[in-house]
């Protein structure tokens, strides 16, 4: 897996902490030179912390303090010591042989994968004192190996908190900012044919787990909170908040919370561990997930999902093979599951409980409550799980389902080898004490009139000795709230993020400090300019600072090698970056960019002239941003051997993986880019060359580019919230097989300085695949006037040509009005049938446009240089003959519909009903008439 630059994040942490204390903020990023040394220095006296911790940790050189405490860094494997005990008194920890104690006198930071003990050797006991805070950077997680133990026992008033660096010092915490906590044991797991010789590799890092000791102990967790974890390695490898791999019943787990994790909250792979008093909030995928033979128990579990941000409350598996032993068969009692509305960004509906893959379970006092837009609340899937219900291995009693869609039945699916069906509602209602109806809750607590208070299973301790008696349905008895004082995010205790950027004292690793001339830059706060150039073959993080600019100089900054020497360029929210006249950024195949800004702190990429005092900005003053992927492009006959040269710099792109990720662009503004090499080679603001759908692109702007705003060469990347303003050639250009999606696109032109809003191509060779076939919804284009720009191109709306297919919905093209070319837009919708495959796509229904409005003096044009296809398409008839289209005048203010404009508002098609990528809308154009999604982050020239 990729290890990201933790150093940069650590520096930011200190700054943000100090910002909260007022005054100037100073970060030591480890590059300072004191200019000399003192002759014959007096040896310093060791502090209690140095005496206690220097044997297994190092004092941070980049974080001065957090919460007023020193920061000490854990890295690599924690092993036994043969030296004398260094454990201090009071809150100071230390090490004594195999016992390592993390004291609460300091704040701890994880650097990469920190592993307690070796696998079944060099074992340690890792004790974490109450009140300790542990910070993780974007590649960090903590593993407790087999035969080692963790003793993390906080208290209600002083819980132990594992969190991200950002959240730990008051910045906005977000899912996926670090890894999580992993416990690995010697208990049975059904992926081992021989439990006496069992070594299962954990899904991240290949740490081993599994064995034949059901009562194995991995230690204890009590009053432990894990926040903002779950970094993603790829589409199948992500970190859970707390992972239990083959963990035995000798382990104690109670009063734990996982909050805002980017994958599952907790997950169990086999084992027998029991958990109780568990809070799982706002986790992205499944809140509680088990597989591979978990036979533990869980009681008093509160699950609260995030609207439009979570999947299942419980996802329960055993094994795809019915013969795998042991079968998953935990005992569950007193759950409250609040099912969210909507679906998460992965396209998964929010749902309640899914039993599948042959799992068993004995469940009691379960309360599942869904909203109006929740998915199914109880589902059973596949033949092996139906058999578990018939054998009595899967049961549910004394439970309450309160959902609009309470049940989903098991259906036969011969293609997947499933022939059995099950009426889930009948199965549920046929067992003792089960209810369907209103839960009658006040928040998550039952009201005095709720049936949940009296409908629970009595004498649970007699049913299973791991349970305590709790004869009510759900996690709460209506009186005692056991979540108080130690949890986060459910009691109105969220800390507002610190919005001030820090002051940096030196440039981050991977950049070079340049001399700053006083008065040179428009921003008088600038004291640091950090330069980058050449080939970047290791991970670099650009830190945000109110006094720093980043400079791209000396040609392209190339991130990583082509499908080798992969690297990540991480750019923090609020970074300002400029490029010189011959520079651009190219992200190679196999590498990625993580440019994640916010609405309050967008990332700005601009020209040198835009930051220098007295200089004048114009198009083409630097290159722009190029993402190169391994996706499909019809420029390659064989996608398994594909190396297309990008039009500037000959950087290769293309391959066979349309789902690949090149990283993330969020809240990124690119200005004054697009230098010209020659008449056929020019840079776009952002170029997507065979970029895959695993790349996240949202809230981006390209302003005043010297060529196209954005261009796509094949691939399947998807985009949301795109603002393209005053670009010279085509604002949005696709070719060579782009099959992605886009929603909320706003395009504006400068009169006499632009060509088309959209120019759409596919291929010139007959039968080339893939065919360009994107889907766009909610697009507004305000094209410029019908006056030639410097290249001889006039202001126009949309041109569909060169064999493209595609689907355009909810599009508004509103041209300039007037009596002459200097006052009106050129054609607003044109189809060019020079290549006959475009005509074929029209006739075959592969090129469509619905629920759209053309408001132009010259609405339509058909052009063709091919006599065989000339006038083969009447564009006006094609447009008007499709659903919801009108060529009519509408009222807008800078593209935003005026109040009561019913030709736009309420006239659109809801694309979310047919494709989960799209958000639900009912209007035509990029705006709903109320909200301008550009506010706060986009550059709008005055």
From TrEMBL:
Composition bias type Polar residues, residue spans: 305-322
Region Disordered, annotated ranges: 30-50, 305-327
Domain of life: Bacteria
Key words of the record: Signal
Biased composition regions of type Low complexity, renumbered to the chain: 30-39
First and last residue of the signal peptide: 1-19
Annotated protein name in UniProt: Lipoprotein
